[in-house]
Amino acid sequence: xxALASMALHFTPSPVVVHRAVSxxxxxxxxNLRLTSACCCFSANSFRGLPFLSPYxxxxxxxxxxxxxxxxxxxxxxxxxxxxxKFAKLGIGHHFRVCNMATSGAAEVLSKDSLLEWAxxxxxxxxxxxxxVGDLEKTIKFYTECLGMKLxxxxxxxxxxxxNAFLGYGPEExxxxxxxxxxxxxxxxxxxxxxxxxxxxxxxxxxxxxxxKAKGGKVTRExxxxxxxxxxxxxxxxxxxxxxxxxxxxxxxxxxxQVMLRVGDLDRSINFYEKAFGMKLxxxxxxxxxxxxxxxxxxxxxxxxxxxxxxxxxxxTEYDKGNGYAQIAISTGDVYKTAEAIRISGGKITRExxxxxxxxxxxxxxxxxxxxxxxxxxxxDFLRELE
Length: 387
Hints:
The chain is 26% helix and 36% strand. The protein has helices at residues 15-30, 53-63, 66-72, 81-89, 112-121, 136-145, 205-214, 266-275, 335-344, 379-386, and strands at residues 3-4, 7-10, 34-35, 38-41, 77-79, 96-101, 107-109, 126-132, 150-157, 162-168, 177-183, 195-202, 218-225, 232-237, 243-248, 256-262, 280-287, 292-298, 307-313, 325-332, 348-355, 362-367, 373-378.
């Protein structure tokens, strides 16, 4: 028998039609026809008039043949991003894939190469890093008085028993910031061994350290040239033990310039962040004398944007992540395409793309090969939320 490389049906989702379509795919398999990318495609108007019923109709129709579908690894339905959000709420989002709607109204399935190419062109920016602290007011005081940050906003969510504070060196619309989370009644966290530090660019490391000492801050490495180089650095700790590397540089538009995470396979991580996240490898440096290698990776040059510093320590493949550090948030033009690009690059989607309850901001969340979490946020939704 011959192989069907691709099959697509374009129709309005009547339960009878969907049932017949899925049944057709099952019968083809029973006749030993190999379906390599069987899919059902819907037009942009497919749900018009049936905004609430349609997801349930499809859920019912698909459930009739889920066992056959799982057994043969079919990609069941290629749908629009908005539709996927509805299915994600029903807990069946993982059975669907996103398609790009052509101007003619027909559905154009995006290939793997097209998705990865789109990820490279998507305009992205690192928005903020989220981590938990035991005393919010004490931490805010340290960041504002010792590190020179500004408190940008604060929000209390009593029904969920936590408070957020956003701090940084400029407005969230244009700068990378920290999002501190205080959970009611929790005063201490395990930072683990995987998280490394944050980097802050300052014009004079020596003066900054003296200020921090005068305010009672903890300095864990005195100012001086980095081992094997000429860059002047120092390390300090905040009240919860999170480390900050102070890096001497000239004026920069992005003082909060680095997030360092340890990884078990550096080349694997670089490949993942380049393909799935659309980042670029900026530089890589091996330090055999001290048995570690670092890679700087991001969306722009180190002296102008925030970057990830991935560190591989010789022979160490796993780290304890603790429960303090949470995630990084990155903006994207399309959370649905982003999720699919991550999925086909080997990442694990932990939250299917779709709007957050109550505020309609679309997000998706994933884990990298080492289990580090990242949340992608729709760019326009993010700006509207700030407004």
